[in-house]
Amino acid sequence: MSKPREDELFITREFDAPVALVFRLCDSREHMLRWWGTEKFTTIEHAWHLTPGRRWRGAMTAKQYGLSRFGGVIREAQKDRRIVFTFQWDDESGRDLDTVVTVTFAEKEGGTVQSFHQTPFSTVAIRDSHIGGWNSLFNKQQLYVENIAVAEQNGLRA
Prior knowledge:
Blueprint: E1 9-15, H1 19-26, H2 29-35, E2 42-47, E3 55-62, E4 66-78, E5 82-89, E6 99-108, E7 111-119, H3 124-153
Antiparallel strand pairs: 1-7, 2-3, 3-4, 4-5, 5-6, 6-7
């Protein structure tokens, strides 16, 4: 694999949960409200529906940092395989370039490999400032997904 460009970010995460579950929890506003956002934030708005061409909006808040708003457009959704959307912060939340996020899902030994790609960033510093935030979000997602997987293994459907 070639070295990533300076204007792109890659993050891979493995989940102990089937692809269909990981994707389903990314396709549900109600579930995403529980895990979207960094660990210090609570998501209070998430208008999200995986319909290509549809705008999406979100807001999260933290006592230490205040309110952050963001949004974009859903570009592509292939069930259990791939989600592509644009992402941008609102002006008051630190808007830079509009970016394109691609998330892919692949089965691995009964679990899921989720690959995340975001580009472009105007500077390496701005790109690097997103690494901690996305990894924190994926920490919340992983805990939530794997706990739901345990529930579903025990006959409960979330």
